[in-house]
Amino acid sequence: MSKKVTLHIKEYKCIHCGKQVTTDVSGNLSTLTPELQDINKTLENIFQKRHRAAEHAA
Q: In 10 A of CB 21, how many CB atoms?
């Protein structure tokens, strides 16, 4: 696993060929396109903000 975006969405990179994939909403692997990278980055930011807010509230 290269990067954990959220609890359910992760990005992976092949150590042999360098191909990057991500999990989609169904849990299937999809090729990591620039559009999906942007979506994952946005999801990661939202996920981190919510978890930081939850930690401060607790």
A: 17
